[in-house]
Amino acid sequence: MGAENLSFVLEKPYAVKFEDRPVPNVTEPHDVIVNVKYTGICGSDVHYWTHGAIGSFIVKDPMVLGHESAGVVSKVGDAVTTLKVGDRVAMEPGIPCRRCVRCKEGNYNLCVDMRFAATPPYDGTLAKYYKLPEDFCFKLPESVSLEEGALVEPLAVGVHITRQGDVKPGNSVVVFGAGPVGLLCMAVAKAYGASKIVAVDINEDRLQFARKYAATHEFRSARVSAEENAANLIKECDLGVGADVIIDASGAEPCIQTAIHALRVGGTYVQGGMGKNEITWPIAAMCSKELTVKGSFRYSQGDYELAVKFLETGQVKVKELITGTVKFEEAEKAFEGVKNAQGIKTLIQGPE
């Protein structure tokens, strides 16, 4: 298309266009300009495309989509020491204020002044060039491709969720939802040394993939009560008195309810999937079991580094998750595919 910084822009629900935006300049000594090569599409991208909003984040002005990206460094600021032009990098797409209490304690994902790519009013990474601070660009090892680099972002989400669960060697871990994030949580739990990893879903194809990918067992949810589903899960997967850790990557109310009943006394529950704003919660089971219940939001200190290290060592593999690549001019096809649950992870090539 010949544009200097061709970008994929959302104007309103289901209305997108290609637009030549200004090429970002180095304005701070630690700035890095990245030539974006591959971008993955996730549920939040599709939700903005279909609804124009996620909760209180509303698209009021045209916004560039995308936040799961990898690319090649094209320019660096004077103070940049860890990267040079030509380096291949995974791009962490959220820039915190660095000054608030949450930032200083390492939980910068909870910064109230976070500037996150493709979250209104901030533009995303589906463009030819994107600017990031040096310490939010992670150099890819030679053994890791740029396509795999685009999956560092969802892998970092899986790392953070699994860290929230404090998964330890020998643990039994159940993951509800065998989509990209659920699969990556399973892979990370395996890397942490979990001895039993159960994938729970209603989609047979996804369950079969999960078993080949990282799960040791699979369980098909049935249309029965949460207590009965939990009892069947524990029995079929030989979980004894219940699972040590359960992660929900589905956001589905019946899954969440089943999970609480399937945990052992003193177990840990992590909510990774986004669902309805309010649900019915088994509070008696949570209290009587003295469960640890945690939320999980994006990623924070050390999650990206660990994600890259997992790829470098081969402890986690993401190549199998890439089920398709489309050219930049066909970006909307990728959104349609994800909306229709086609494949696992679709990548969009950067503009020529």
**What class would the helix/strand composition place it in?**
alpha/beta
Number of helices: 11
Radius of gyration: 20 Å
Q: Note the quaternary state here.
A: single chain
- Residues in helices, as a percent range: 25-40%
* Uncertain spans: none
Note the gap between the termini: 8 Å
Q: Strand content of the residues, in percent?
A: 25-35%
* Average predicted confidence as pLDDT: 96
Give the C-level CATH assignment of the largest domain: Alpha Beta
The third-level CATH topology of the largest domain is Quinone Oxidoreductase, Chain A, domain 1
The gross shape turns out to be: globular
Main pleated sheet: 7 strands, mixed
Number of individual domains: 2
- Tell me the total number of β-strands: 20
The CATH level-2 architecture of the largest domain is identified as Alpha-Beta Complex
